Amino acid sequence: MPQPDEAVLETDRTGDLAAVGAGLDALDAPPQQQRTPLWQRFVSTALPPLVAFALLIGVWQALWASAIWPEFQLPAPGDVWAKVTETVASGDAAEILWTSVSRAVLGFLAAVVIATPLGLLVAKVRVVRAAIGSLLTGLQSLPSVAWVPAAILWFGLTPSAIYFVVLMGSVPSIANGLVSGIDQIPPLLPRVGQALGAGKLQAARHVLLPAALPGYLAGLKQGWAFSWRSLMAAEIIATSPQLGLGLGQFLHNGQSLNDISMVIAAIFLILLVGIGIELLLFRPLERAVLRARGLTGAL
Amino acid sequence: MTATLETSAENTATAAVTLSGVRKVFGHGPSSVLALDGVDLRVAPGEFVCLLGASGCGKSTLLNVVAGLDAPTSGDIALTTTRPAVMFQEAALMPWLTAVRNVELPLRLAGHKRSSRRAKANELLDLVRLGDAGGKRPHELSGGMRQRVALARALASTLGSAEDGTPGLLLMDEPFAALDAITRDVLQAELLRVWRETDTAILFVTHDVREAVRLGQRVVLLSSRPGRVVREWSVDGLTGEDEVATIEDVTARLREVISGHAAA
Q1: Which of A254, A263, B258, B260 has the fewest CB within 10 Å, making it most exposed?
Q2: H or E segment at A114?
């Protein structure tokens, strides 16, 4: 039992310790990162790609001006731009883009719904992983164009055929992303979850899925890219009036009409959508997730 | 503080946790490893017991068995406390949650209401002197601060369901081993303060004799491969020369246990 003077000593010591502890906290806490001003970030992130793009256009213009290749093989940048503005002005561009983008988004969302439980199963159930794990990885390397003939034979020239190709393209990527995300969780975290009293479902909801989120997001990003390019492959090959005019058909029509400006304009629009979704949706999402975990090195 | 000691003296009949004849074998057949061999141990409610041993003595195994993370091969574990909380050598905070939400996590898993668990979590963060750091993410905290958040989280998991006054049990697996000397010193004092304020029984695993004698009321020495209880010392309230003598005694025994393995 402490004597009164001991008690005083004790409080003195705890007071001291509190001060030492507070000092340690102040000294050891990692320094907060300063946010760089907006214009600096613009200069360092947006300017380089813009300059690169301008250089590319410049080289293209020079090559066209030197007339090494005939006009029907290498159009002038201005002609392509005119084609783009023409389709935009006539309202065709909006319709074409809407047809393709809505298909890709719908297909992608369906792929997410299918691939997420599939990925969880492959990651957590040993038998399932042994059975279809390598098949899933293999499917990822199979070009989705290969599915187009089969899809047309099975579903005819219908939207179902196109959606089938999109799904076959993106489901393996998303599922594999989730699997590798779960595989890379530090083993201590699920253990902590268990020690804190999480049941199986709770562990999945509160530990497994959030911990696997960076890998899952990478998978989603790749899944989107795959569903977009699968869609283009399907649209180029499976052309039919009842399928409506998408970007792929637009590209195909350009080839049929021997109109190289139209072909390049279509490629430009396809790229634009791909880069746009990446920059507007996935990049900020990934950045927010990684930044919240202190993983700023890659950004 | 005195109150805690008196209750623990009164409650000698009951125990926070009682281990009787706990055995743990890993693997099967000839390659199996006997990690724990008939460990008997009692921890009274509110008592601070340090488990001491060289590496490979099954300290962590014992803790995992008490925590219910592993099942013993044979033997009995009787808990009269709420769910035991575990603290590891690493803080193992969820990197996507802020400090306060990490502390809330066990309460959330136990199905507490948002407002009550936020209040409880803030209270516990105040207890470990991190009341201002609740909104920070783990990567914005120092190692010592992370370990204190982990302490608050462990307390939340063992005290969260203690509205009915059931005492808690805190299992700590070398929680300060990865910290620098000054931080460790501060955290040991913080742990003692928190222990006195919360009435929780603590089973603290360490390989550091000095730490064991400083923190514990009782030091239990385990042998290595297989783990058995070799000896116990009562080290409550030791100061000055007595403390030094005990540290030497315990160290000598520990050395004996370790050098016994060189011959084998």
Answers
A1: B260
A2: helix A92-124
